[in-house]
Design a protein that fits this description.
Chain lengths: 302, 302, 133, 133
Amino acid sequence: MSTDNLPFGLGVSLYSYTEDLGVTMTVEDCIEDVADLGAKGLEILGEGHIADYPNPSTAWIDAWFARNERLGLTPTLYGSWIDTRRFPGRGMTAAEGAAQLALDLRLAGRLGFSFVRPKIGVISGDLQVDPIWQEAVERNLELAEELGIVICPEIHWPTVIRSPVVEEYLEFKERTGTSQFGLLIDTGVFDVQRFHARGGSASFRMGDGGAMPPDVPFVPVSDLAEVMEHTVYFQAKFYEVDDDLVDHYLPWREIIDVVVDSGYTGWLSSEYEGHHVPYRAADQLRRQHALIRSIAAERTER
Amino acid sequence: MSTDNLPFGLGVSLYSYTEDLGVTMTVEDCIEDVADLGAKGLEILGEGHIADYPNPSTAWIDAWFARNERLGLTPTLYGSWIDTRRFPGRGMTAAEGAAQLALDLRLAGRLGFSFVRPKIGVISGDLQVDPIWQEAVERNLELAEELGIVICPEIHWPTVIRSPVVEEYLEFKERTGTSQFGLLIDTGVFDVQRFHARGGSASFRMGDGGAMPPDVPFVPVSDLAEVMEHTVYFQAKFYEVDDDLVDHYLPWREIIDVVVDSGYTGWLSSEYEGHHVPYRAADQLRRQHALIRSIAAERTER
Amino acid sequence: MLEEQLIQAAGFRNVGPDAAPTGFQLRVRSPYYRGLWGSLIERPTVTVDGEEFAGDDTLWTLPTGEYTFAELQRSPDARWPMDAPAVLTVPKPGGLARGIHEVTLELRLRMSYIPEELQPSIWTATRKAVIVR
Amino acid sequence: MLEEQLIQAAGFRNVGPDAAPTGFQLRVRSPYYRGLWGSLIERPTVTVDGEEFAGDDTLWTLPTGEYTFAELQRSPDARWPMDAPAVLTVPKPGGLARGIHEVTLELRLRMSYIPEELQPSIWTATRKAVIVR
Ligand SMILES: [Mn+2]
Ligand SMILES: [Mn+2]
């Protein structure tokens, strides 16, 4: 019923409400909805959801804390970007990358977040990340420790678990020996079939050159077990839960088995990314949470 | 261009935004849109658009005046209701009707309106108005005069211009000799063909008894000339202006000829009542105002 | 902002003790173009997965207060404004099961300016709504 | 709130003296899921009734200020947040005639986390928009 006896924390990323935000819902409406659907964790995108980023007013910050307190919500992860192509005609220096990350870490800390996901620019068609990332992150490890924040790059399809990028992240973690760094797994890597999203307020294409995105196979959930010890956060990416409370795209029972069996007690933070249609997120998030709660209840009973 | 050299005032009723209000637009958003589309007059429904009706906060009232000042908007008409069926099991007394009207007149006066339209309950299938109306209005004529407000019942299809109801209104005006009373003509009486509106957030029916609304023919614009001397306000009801800036439902050239030729310099206040679809009002209001401005410009040139 | 459809995704939940819910709630956007006096609301019908709940027992929560249907009819000042949802609390021992339910609402409002034989005005809305917990 | 489609009904108007407009404006909702640094905006293309206007001459008004396209590229702190429309001012002597126009916008944003050969990200939106006065 309404007690939260789950083996992990259940949260929602405001990214889920992208089609509604600014159109049918304010950021405040979205946060109210997260609480209404019974989630406890609140994930945001710094550049998306903080008014007057990077300089929110103290009134905005005060309202943030008062609202979370009233609604029983815990800030979980703050999504940030290291926009390595920000300066036309040249790359970004490691110092500039470190400054951007420091800015977001400080803001995340001020808002009470425990995790920051920097989305790092890439330098190749196979999504090798810009080499400035190591220095940019390393320079911030001390700050992250002060703030009690874990920095976690996101493993997001078409980057998969067994990949040079993940190896690079794990080598960094080993080399630095830091506990302020770990992996964020976006469950979209475990898709069992591709979802074709409809809708959206404009037609979209990537570039005029006719280049095609890489065709990368999806990942068996068994790969997850191998990196659970380094995994600090999950974005529970999903697209559609049908009218019978079935998700035909993501193997939630398998995922939850691996997650819970590994002893993970962190957050599963829902990222709705289905049809680009207003109002669909609020309904689908409720379906996904009902499904995940049902699966957790089944595990308890068996 | 952007000077307002029209022979009449052009306004918008917030009723137009019914499908958007509270869903995609706040009352404040709607008012901003009225100004953005170049209208000068602002019509509201008291019970629809005043926060905490009938007791708006002073903060709401201050913001109302500051916004209208900033946007160059003049409050025109305040729509009110005399809900004669408000008390289950009995009718409304004339004193109760007068009290409701007094409440709305005072609120309208406080917000700077010049016209109040009381929508009066009916007592028969042919839309005879509840006889309490005469006393309810008469008791308020002095208050209306103090407030500088003209009370104007609305002639709205299926009530037409040549009707017992209009005769009753004109007899009242003659008997009392008041200048605080006149007619509001809703241009929907001049439809040249019926518009069938689609959309809406729920299916709708009037009663479970299977009774049919009266089938009343529409009105030739020539009927309007006969009551122009008593007409103090127009709701420029419309449904659809097409992609060629043509309205196939309302004879605007004829209407504007009668209105302007009579010497009327009051308000034409747009009431969009087409398909019940969000965002359509903002677009259609712009089309209708472009059309009306074009017709006015043609008249000037000829 | 409220959701466009009348029955809102938010606010659909069981009420009462977790171990023994006493009923459920739904949140409803007004379909009308103005706010109105609460006494102009007539009995609603709520149907969940085919089970119909009579409007007499439904509790109304409006910005002006909480009302049984009888209290609403008698109230001199209850109001349902356009910009606030009404919360309908429907008694049902045990509540609703976690999952997706088909919910239908027949909402009835009495309008004075429409001939009596064509009243009340009735809006019917159906949606699939989720009990999450 | 902003309108769902990218090109807003509001804000489409001529600019400059009434007797001799110097151009027109349109208001654009960001299609992206976060706010972004202005220097990540690439040249837009605006087309009205088949007439194409080059992005180099388009003036950008963002909450952080007003920028020529060249200024936007160089700016260290210009931002286009999700919740505020960008106003694009397009030079066109005489402006646009009163009435309905077909307006198309190709909006280009540069994303760092997508392979270079798949960039920029391009959104194309078309609407009929009205010059009222
Ligand atoms: Mn993700
Ligand atoms: Mn009317």
